[in-house]
Amino acid sequence: MTTSSSSSSASHNAPHSALPRIAVLATGGTIAGSAQDATSTAGYQAGVVGVGQLLAAVPALSTLANIHAEQVASIDSKDMSLALWTTLAQRVNKLLASDDIDGIVITHGTDTLEETAYLLHLTVKSAKPVVLTAAMRPSSALSADGPLNLLNAVSVAAHRAAHGQGVLVAFNNRIHSARDVVKTSTFAVDAFQSPEVGALGWVQDGRVEFQRRVVRPHTTATEFAIEATANDAWPAVEIVTSYAGVTRVMVDALVKDGVRGIVVAGTGNGSIHVSLQQGLADAVAQGIAVVRASRVGSGHVMHNGAASDDALGFVSANALNAYKARVLLMLALAAGNPARAALQDVFDLY
């Protein structure tokens, strides 16, 4: 895969040997957004403020770390692409392999932050901290939340307790695991939550405290490498939703188009309308992987065993929502785990 995004770098402050060395990778988003009216938090252009300006708005960063800054992309994260995922993951791994970098902060749009975070959680090959942050208000807005979120993210990335925790999200004074976190509001500054298990900890005024640690395998403990999905090798995986009166038209069209996997956002505990279920069962018969997730905001999709999943050839997504389930399914298929039993093992593990 190729990407048109360019990468540039800058040094934010003079080196101080006692401070950790943190790379800040900017990708755009609302945190880098700007509007003509300071009272506007919706009518703005995302990704137009450069990483240098973002850092200059938070002079206290110089007391926390030696900052290495790069502009990896300048997009609205609704337009995140697989090619940019490849570029970002490879850049993160290259930086973390250097003795000159102690941790990474990524500024990102909120719309697809949870997907990017989970992708990196599964493919980063280092125990060094990687922390994503974002904003719900553009940089030009009254009470913009981006500067404080950025300060807190650097605080977390520079803290020894963040090592070995996988990819983290620092937002509105809370620290979340990439696996658990989801966006839960279209407008509130407290837009990210971990509904099932809660936040890992909190960060405020430079103090970082973890209440628990991540227990599922991640980063160096996974079988996934982003190189396996480069050069247009991302398996085609799409998402469909079950709802009242749904038909199998979407599934049949995807099968015809040659997808390798389908994630279904079912009702309740991943239940699927009978018409859609038959279409998905027919897709399985043609060698397409089907994963059951839920359109509900929290909870687990339990494996139904012989009564349903085993008979139909479906995989249950555990506590992953449909969007994160798609990320894991793409990586699992790219890693050579197409069989249903092997895929269920992957979803039970990660």
TrEMBL record:
Keyword terms: Hydrolase
Organism: Paraburkholderia edwinii
Protein name: Asparaginase
Domain of life: Bacteria
Matches recorded under Pfam families: Asparaginase, Asparaginase_C
Residue stretches in coiled coil: none
Residue stretches making up the Asparaginase/glutaminase C-terminal domain: 237-347
UniProt domain L-asparaginase N-terminal: residue ranges: 21-214
Residue positions of the active site: T30, T110
Family statement drawn from the similarity comment of this UniProt entry: Belongs to the asparaginase 1 family.
